[in-house]
Amino acid sequence: MKRSKYDLAVGLFVAFGLMSLVFLALKVGNLAGYDSGEGYRIEARFDNIGGLKVRAAVKSAGVVVGRVEAIVLDPETYEAKTILRLDPRYRFSKDTIASILTSGLLGEQYVNLEVGGDSVYLGNGDRVVKTQPAMILEKLIGQFLFNKAAENTGSK
Amino acid sequence: MTSNANPALVRLEAVHFAYDERPILRGLDLTIAKGEVVAVMGGSGSGKTTLLGLIGGRLLPQSGAVMVDGKNVPTLKRSELYRLREKLGMLFQLGALFTDLSVFDNIAFPYREQTNLPEPMIRDLVLMKLEAVGLRGAADLMPAQLSGGMARRVALARAVALDPMLMLYDEPFTGLDPISTGIVARLIRRLNDAFGLTSLVVTHDLDSSLKIADRVVVISEGTVYRDMTPEEVRQTDDAFVRQFADGLPDGPVPFHYPAPPFIDQLVGRHEQAS
Amino acid sequence: MNRLLEPLADLGHVVLSALARLGLVGRFFIGILTVLWFPVRRFSLLVREVYFSGFRSLLIVTVSGLFVGMVLAVQGYEVLQRFGSAESLGVLVALSLVRELGPVVTALLFAGRAGSATTAEIGLMQATDQIAAMDMMAINPMARIIAPRFLAAVISVPILACLFISAGIFGSYLVGVQLIGIDEGAFWSQMQASVDFRLDVINGLIKAVVFGVAIGLISVFEGYYAPPTAEGVSSATTRTVVVSSLTVLMLDFGLTVWMFRGLS
């Protein structure tokens, strides 16, 4: 029976496939840095989250330290309440400032954590007190025009 | 036509079969006793191949019973039908060998698929079957390398591989030269007697049928027209059977396909042209 | 009055027969599923079919992937460098290949090469009574002939898709980094940052599996029900390629919308 000829070829075929899959997973995709759902959760409330989406990055000093796990609207205060899941290796002080920045000029939005000086650290379930909302382009333009108009009337 | 000493292996009772509204068999009755070689003949489209399909369970009749070895074939579930088919052997019109397997592997196929026999034993069995049909030397050839007659014999060896109780032959002599025809005919009879089979041969070839059959059944208009022994066929006065036996171009089976009178068509055409 | 109704009756007939055929496909599919255990148990049958469908398609898939990747790099660079984003070429190429081009083009190539071959093989077996002979030997042709070929397609297409994508990325690397001169570090790092394993790679693979099921089913179905004539088998073969290709593209649209709806 010619079984061995087919077995070898198909074995090679499957092996190539698996190797390319591993290549895709590690070299092309981000499986190596993939977080497995562990870590501690903190809460942050924003006046406006702009274009922030679930699974967006949480960064500090440009390094990815976690992911946005959930975004809901608080029905009483009408603030945007976000749950951030952070890598347990990194601890942030209780006076950390959370802001929403944009990567690049027109890129995706992420949560930026700027650590403060407090000796007490945020634990699982704690809330970030100081937050800065996302910059909304329309508001910026409106503000710019308003300022410009005020300048002109002021200088007259 | 069966004696009490020879029980009926196959019995069709009042079988009606229609294909797409066109009736093929109308209340056909037929009995085949164990050990017999029965030749089934009839005009094209008379239902001879349908008969094989019904017995093998590949076709379902509109009504009537198709009893094989005491079981009513149309009522069998798939698993029961398969168990019955293990005891049937069928030779298809052009052999139907598996083209990607050698002659040896073709005959070994039923053994390998249906039994747990060890390879050395299968090898011996295959060689025995090949020897019976005279092709032991061709064991390593591929079907594409075989002549029509050889392919037919290999298919025959494959069909009898599991020692069936009933052999069905669908036009086994089609396209064979006279020598191969004689070989196949003799094999059908010899295998039948040597292995204690029962054989149903659907064929056009009257000469071969007369040589090997115990009975010749002629089908016409969807029922059994005549059921005779070969000797009776040779001496009959019946016009229909006579036309078959002597190969006459015209008779009860007309030469002309039904059409309006010729002169009318010719004259009509003349009138149109002018 | 009759003249007006005729085209309507024809249309009705076409729709009804299409529906009937679809129902036949459905029943056939369920028939395959019930005997799918057979090629797993008789593994050598499956291996043989994966060899003929998958392994034999390696060359066309990897070479096509390589060239598609290279073209992507050329065209992508041309557009990106207008916005000063040439360094994002890796992202462009990887996402295009992983999400769309990899699964879809691989499936189309597979349908043309392996799908048509399967249809022709099975159609020819039907025309020469080989399938009927097997059936009469009490060996289920669905289990022995059809199921292994179907399963082989489901297994082969995702593997081939991975190879297509890898070849494509390699091709774009050759053109983008080696030929055009884009920064190698930026090429890979931006790609890694943007291609999400779960969202992109896994979804691309899921697409490939679905396409494999579709092509596998269509190719064996057309072969099994091909009219037993030379003309019948040949038209069944072309029908496999056409129907498979259209089905793959339609499924791709549906899957893309369903998978990537959260991104916009």
Structural summary, described in words:
The complex is a heterotrimer of chains A (156), B (274) and C (264). Chain A has 2 helices and 8 strands; from the N terminus they run αββββββββα. In chain A, 22% of the residues are buried. Chain A has an 8-stranded mixed sheet with strand order 7-1-4-3-2-6-5-8, with no helix packed on it. Chain A is α/β, with parallel strands linked by helices and 156 residues long. In chain A, strand 3 (63-73) and strand 4 form a beta hairpin. The longest helix of chain A is centred in the first third of the chain and has 26 residues, at 3-28. Helices cover 29% and strands 29% of the residues of chain A. Chain B is of the alpha/beta class and 274 residues long. Chain B has a domain at 8-93 and 164-236: 3-Layer(aba) Sandwich (Rossmann fold). Chain B starts with 7 loop residues before the first strand and ends with a helix. By secondary structure, chain C is mostly helical. Chain C has one domain (28-256). In chain C, helix 4 (58-80) packs antiparallel against helix 5, helix 5 (89-127) packs antiparallel against helix 7 and helix 5 (89-127) crosses helix 8. Chain C is globular, with a radius of gyration of 22 Å. The model of chain C has no long low-confidence stretch (mean pLDDT 92). Classes of the chains: A alpha/beta (156), B alpha/beta (274), C mainly alpha (264). Chains in contact: A-C, B-C. The A-C interface holds A 3, 6-7, 9-10, 12-14, 16-17, 20-21, 23-25, 27-31, 33-34, 53 and C 44, 47-48, 50-51, 54-55, 58, 94, 98, 156, 158-160, 162-163, 165-166, 169, 188, 191-193, 195-198, 200-201, 205, 262.
Task: Give a quick precis of the structure.
The complex is a heterotrimer of chains A (156), B (274) and C (264). Chain B contains 10 helices and 10 strands. Chain B is of the alpha/beta class and 274 residues long.
- Count of discrete domains of chain C: 1
Oligomer: heterotrimer
What topology, given as strand order, has the largest sheet of chain B?
A: 6-7-8-3-9-10
> Helical element count of chain B?
10
Query: How far is the N terminus from the C terminus of chain C?
Result: 53 Å
Helix content of chain B: 25-40%
CATH topology of the domain at 8-93 and 164-236 in chain B: Rossmann fold
Q: What overall geometry of chain B do the principal axes of the alpha carbons give?
A: globular
Uncertain segments of chain C: none
Q: Would you identify the regions of chain B where 5 or more consecutive residues have pLDDT less than 50? A: 1-5
Mean pLDDT of chain C: 92
- Give the topology string of chain C: H per helix, E per strand: HHHHHHHHHH
Return the string of H and E elements of chain B: EEEHEEHEHHHEHEHEEHHH
Distance between the terminal alpha carbons of chain B, to the nearest Å?
A: 64 Å
Kindly estimate the percentage of residues of chain C that lie in beta strands according to DSSP: under 5%
Secondary structure: helix percent of chain C:
over 70%
User: Whole-number average pLDDT of chain B?
Assistant: 86
Proper CATH architecture of the domain at 8-93 and 164-236 in chain B: 3-Layer(aba) Sandwich
